[in-house]
Design goal:
The protein has 155 residues and is of the alpha+beta class. The protein has a single domain, classed as YbaK protein (Alpha-Beta Complex). 25% of the residues lie in helices and 32% in strands. The strands form three sheets. It has a five-stranded mixed beta sheet with strand order 5-2-3-6-9, covered by helices on one side. It has a three-stranded antiparallel beta sheet with strand order 1-8-7. It has a two-stranded antiparallel sheet with strand order 4-10. The protein starts with a helix and ends with a strand. The mean pLDDT is 92.
Length: 155
């Protein structure tokens, strides 16, 4: 299992109980949920967005989509999805398309959809296409301090 030292440090510093989950490499959170035999709603996906010059992370259940208009109303300006090339520059310690939802590591605010609060545990990306971390939703909220709001729609 590969986990960045920055991510390991933040989890250990905050005394978070978690387990590592390794799986075959996947492309997409819903596929990752399937190979981990986990309900898609418990697998958090991270979407990197831009609002003006600001960058932010949206964290939502795998089978949901970001409602850009709803999120724009919350952040106070138009929101667009960042191109993957730009993301690679922002997250150099992560595999292409495998962004962990820990905004503090990258100086980015995190917006988490309320639907993720409903489950006691969530699975989050660990920065690779084949690694995840299972942790309590409460611990995730405690250490990430996301803006918890409703901006996602179920597919």
């Amino acid at each position: 299992m590969s986990i960045s030292s920055k991510l390991q440090t933040i989890l250990d510093k905050n005394q978070v109980r978690y387990s590592r989950v390794s799986h075959v490499p996947t492309y997409g959170a819903q596929f990752a949920a399937a190979v981990m035999h986990a309900p898609g709603k418990e697998v958090a996906k991270t979407v990197v967005l831009r609002s003006g010059k600001r960058r932010l992370l949206a964290v939502l259940p795998a089978p949901y989509h970001v409602d850009l208009q709803r999120l724009a109303a919350i952040v106070g300006g138009p929101v667009t999805v960042m191109e993957e090339k730009e993301c690679d520059k922002l997250f150099p310690d992560c595999e292409h398309g495998a962004v962990p939802p820990f905004g503090e590591l990258y100086g980015l605010p995190v917006y988490m959809d309320k639907a993720l609060e409903e489950d006691l545990e969530i699975l989050v990306n660990a920065g690779t296409r084949s690694d995840a971390i299972r942790m309590s939703s409460a611990d995730f909220i405690r250490i990430v301090k996301p803006n918890v709001c409703s901006f996602a729609t179920k597919s």
